[in-house]
Amino acid sequence: MPALPAPFDDDALRELIPRLRRFARSLAREPAAADDLVQATLERALTHGHERRDGEALQAWLFSVLYRRFVDDYRRTARWRRIARLFSADEEAQAPTPEQVFDARTALAGFARLPAEQRALLLLVSVEGLGYREAADVLGIPIGTVMSRLSRARQALRAADDDQVAKKPALKVLR
User: Fold this and answer.
1) Which DSSP symbol is given to 115?
2) Which of 2, 44, 46, 116 is the most buried (most CB within 10 A)?
3) What are phi and psi of 134, to 5 degrees?
4) Across the chain, how many H-helices and E-strands are there?
5) Angle (deg, nearest 10), helices 31-48 and 10-28
6) φ and ψ of 114, to 5 deg
7) What is the pTM of this model?
8) Between vectors from CA 82 to CA 79 and to CA 84, what angle results, nearest 5°?
9) Domains of the chain as residue ranges with CATH
10) Which residues, at least 6 apart from 12, have a Cβ–Cβ distance to it below 8 Å?
11) Do 34 and 27 form a contact (C-beta atoms < 8 A)?
């Protein structure tokens, strides 16, 4: 039976707080956001410290917890910004040109022709911002399958786009 990781005490955590703060400030670039990251990291350490792997160093574990929290928060914020942009009334926005409308409809039609597995992966990775590992976990498939399906889906979209470019009518030159 593997031994449990060595318990940590308040002194060990206090020693690491300045390092955690420095790392958090380099990531977040705002003192308040960095302090929030450190606080969330310490909270996780106190509530889930027993989940550390055998022999895992406390400092390395805390830094990985902080980094994962930063990435999660960054992705969540980016997702909310995209959603908010959909509902915001942007008065400076210009109406799309007919070419932009055609290109968008062509891309959506090409996307609709993809198999469901490829569409799901493209949505999770490209729209929702999940990483390959996260998408693999969500869909319950190996990460290699994720990468190959994404590659095939992107190739199919490029091929569909190339077909549409070739099918666009040539402009007639008038003299």
Assistant:
1) -
2) 44
3) -65, -40
4) 7, 0
5) 140
6) -70, 150
7) 0.47
8) 105
9) 10-87 (1.10.1740.10), 98-167 (1.10.10.10)
10) 58
11) yes
Structure-token pair, residue 148: 């190959």
Amino acid identity of residue 69, one-letter, is R
User: How many angstroms separate the CA atoms of 28 and 139, rounded?
Assistant: 31
CA–CA gap between residue 69 and residue 46 (Å, rounded): 15
Token pair 């969500």: residue: 138
End-to-end CA distance of the chain: 87
d(CA 121, CA 153): 9
Per-residue pLDDT tens over the stretch 111-140: 888 888 888 888 888 888 888 998 888 888
Token look-up 């995209």 returns 82
Q: Which two tokens stand for residue 124?
A: 């999770």
